[in-house]
Specification:
Elements (H helix, E strand, L loop, with lengths): L24 H16 L8 H8 L3 E2 L4 E2 L4 E2 L5 E3 L4 E2 L4 E3 L4 E3 L4 E2 L4 E3 L1 E3 L8 E3 L2 E3 L4 E2 L4 E2 L4 E2 L4 E2 L4 E2 L7 E4 L4 E5 L4
Parallel strand pairs: 1-4, 2-5, 3-6, 4-7, 5-8, 6-9, 7-12, 8-13, 9-14, 12-15, 13-16, 14-17, 16-18
Antiparallel strand pairs: 10-11, 18-19
C-alpha cells in the first residue's frame, strides 16, 4: 500500500515570518518605479545618473561604476559596488540579501545573481536568502548564474552560460553547470 505524501500548498505561503525586504512599502514602491524607468528600461541609455539613483536608495556605490541599460536590481539598500565595476545589459541582480561587488568586477550581459529560493521540503514553501560576494577583479560571463551563498574569489572567472553553486577559488576559470575549474587565470 502506498502512503499518501504531503503536497506543497501555496495557499499557505506567507513570507512575513521568513523574509524581510529591508525597507518599508513606500521606499519599495518608489524603487519599483525608479528601477523600471531608469534601470530596466532599454530606452534610457544614460549611465551617469544610475550610481546617484542607487545611492539615493541606500546602495554603496564606488567611483567609475558603469551600469548599462536593461539592468534589474531588486533591493539597492542591500547592494555594495566597489570602484570601476561594470554591469552589462540585461543583468539581473536578484539581491534579496546583501550583494557585495568588489572593485574592477565585470558582470556581463544577461548574467544573473540570484540570492533567494524556497524551502521545497516545507508545505508552505517559505522564502530564504543568503549573501553573495563577488571579490575584486572577478568576471561573471554573459548568461552565467551565481546562486545564493556563493563567494567568487579575487579574479576568478565564471565562463559564459556557467552556473556557480559553490565558492569559486581565486585566479581560476570555471565553466559548466555546475561550474568546475578548467584552468588558471593569468593576468598580465
Amino acid at each position: 500500500m502506498t502512503v499518501p505524501r504531503k503536497q506543497v500548498d501555496l495557499r499557505r505561503f506567507d513570507n512575513s515570518a521568513s523574509f524581510h525586504p529591508g525597507a518599508g512599502v513606500i521606499k519599495r514602491t518608489l524603487w519599483y518605479f525608479v528601477n523600471a524607468l531608469f534601470f530596466i528600461n532599454p530606452a534610457f541609455p544614460f549611465r551617469s545618473p544610475k550610481p546617484f539613483l542607487l545611492r539615493l536608495f541606500g546602495a554603496k556605490v564606488g567611483k567609475g561604476v558603469v551600469i548599462h541599460p536593461g539592468v534589474n536590481i531588486k533591493f539597492p539598500w542591500r547592494l555594495s559596488i566597489g570602484d570601476h565595476s561594470w554591469i552589462g545589459q540585461r543583468v539581473w541582480l536578484d539581491n534579496l540579501d546583501q550583494l557585495t561587488i568588489g572593485n574592477n568586477v565585470v558582470i556581463s550581459q544577461g548574467a544573473l545573481v540570484i540570492q533567494g529560493s524556497h524551502d521545497y521540503k516545507r508545505i508552505d514553501y517559505p522564502t530564504y536568502s543568503k549573501p553573495v560576494v563577488l571579490e575584486d577583479g572577478s568576471w561573471i560571463g554573459a548568461g552565467a548564474i551565481v546562486t545564493l551563498g556563493v563567494t567568487v574569489r579575487s579574479h576568478a572567472v565564471l565562463a559564459v552560460g556557467s552556473v556557480a553553486t559553490k565558492d569559486l577559488e581565486p585566479y581560476t576559470v570555471y565553466q559548466g553547470n555546475p561550474a568546475v575549474p578548467v584552468r588558471e587565470r593569468v593576468v598580465e
